[in-house]
Amino acid sequence: MTIEKILNEKLFMEDVERFPIRILSEQTKVGTSTLRAWERRYGLLKPQRTPKGHRLYRVKDIERVQKILALINDGHSLADIGDLLSPFENVTTFTDERLIKERHPSVWNKYIQSTLDAAQDFNIERIDAVYNEASASYPVDLLTDKLIQPCLDILGNAWKKNPEGGIAEEHFYTAWLKNRLGARFHHAYALARGSRIICACLPGSNHEVGLMLFALSILYRGYRVLYFGADLPLSQLPHITKRSAAKAIILGAHIQMEENINRKLTELITSQKIPVFIGGSNPSLNIKHIETAGGIFLGTENAIALRVFERHIPLHLSDN
Questions:
Q1: Which domain holds residue 141?
Q2: Is the Cβ–Cβ distance between 31 and 140 less than 8 Å?
Q3: Does residue 68 form part of some domain?
Q4: Is 286 a domain residue?
Q5: What's residue 281's pLDDT?
Q6: Distance (Å, whole) CA 103 – CA 154
Q7: Domain tally, the chain
Q8: Are 173 and 236 in a shared domain?
Q9: H-helix segments, the chain
Q10: What tens digit of pLDDT does each residue of 31-80 get?
Q11: What are the angstrom distances between the C-alpha of 45 and each of 6, 19, 66, 78, 95?
């Protein structure tokens, strides 16, 4: 339900501008548990309460959450953001942005370095602790863009500087990450009610972490993700789409690729009545040829890929 419908239907008699936390979450793409944490731990949101204790927000709270997200993207910690936002007006009160950045170094740098140190020592408990601290306060999209992806990039190149243990550190962190993402998949899917989306890696592609991160992001938005993992034969997809009534297919393309992939992918796209998206990148793919057939490329940046996907696939479609 949109904010406009709430206002028009006057669901809240005392103040028709107010709406529940699920609407704030839908409008900002920040999970309800994160919004509650921002309120309880940092005082960044101050909703009114109904007689039964339910939170009620205003349109201005949407703007405030968007400003909080912008400040997080600039590297500010949640503990510092309260000082940067006026307690009475939803405007940012910067006195000297350069001094603020010097005084408050990026919280993500601390998380990244702590994770890398733990990976170097093969210490699961410390990696867990860093991840738990960050995930308790920050949305899954920011965790992906600001913590997980930078760690994967650094560890992916670590073998050049550390041939003795660099590859082992990357494998260790990737294996840990798959386990953690799997647990979050299980929890988020129970709450999802949107369109079913098929996610799989292209034949020959066994690097699935990037696809898992994207799939988790859309799952937290409410899409019901059907995840098939690495190296799925394209011949299986018509059967899957027919039986599942899925509304889109997302295919991850990373490193290895099966021969004749362009021909097979083009045949799949032209045979399907639902959109086929390709995420990641691979020099073997003929992008122009695939796009001419109707394929939609998402690229490698998670934030951009999410915007492209949501433009094409609404959360709720008929016949779910």
A1: 109-185
A2: yes
A3: yes
A4: yes
A5: 77
A6: 26
A7: 3
A8: no
A9: 3-9, 21-28, 32-42, 59-73, 78-84, 97-103, 107-120, 124-135, 140-142, 149-156, 158-161, 166-189, 209-220, 237-244, 261-271, 287-293, 302-312
A10: 888 899 898 888 889 898 888 888 999 888 998 998 888 888 777 778 77
A11: 21, 14, 12, 12, 22
Measure Cα distances from 274 to 12, 172, 219, 233, 246 in Å.
Answer: 39, 37, 19, 18, 8
The mean-pLDDT minimum among 82-86, 137-141, 201-205 falls in: 82-86
Of 103, 118, 140, the last residue of a domain is 103
Q: What local confidence, expressed as pLDDT, does residue 218 receive?
A: 92
Q: How far is CA 184 from CA 33, 78, 85, 219, in A?
A: 13, 23, 31, 10
- 155 with 236, same domain: the answer is no
Residue 5 is encoded by which pair of tokens?
């419908």
Same domain, 129 and 176: yes
If one compares 106 and 147, the residue with the highest pLDDT of the two is 147
Domain for residue 320, yes or no? no
- pTM for this prediction: 0.71
CA gyration radius, the chain: 22
For residue 251, the cross-strand partners are 200, 278
Residue 22 is predicted with a pLDDT of 87
Q: What SS3 state is found at 251?
A: strand
Q: Are residues 33 and 139 in the same domain?
A: no
- The residue out of 185, 214, 230 marking a domain boundary is 185
Backbone dihedral angles phi then psi of residue 15, each to the nearest 5 degrees: -155, 100
**Do 97 and 23 have their domain in common?**
yes
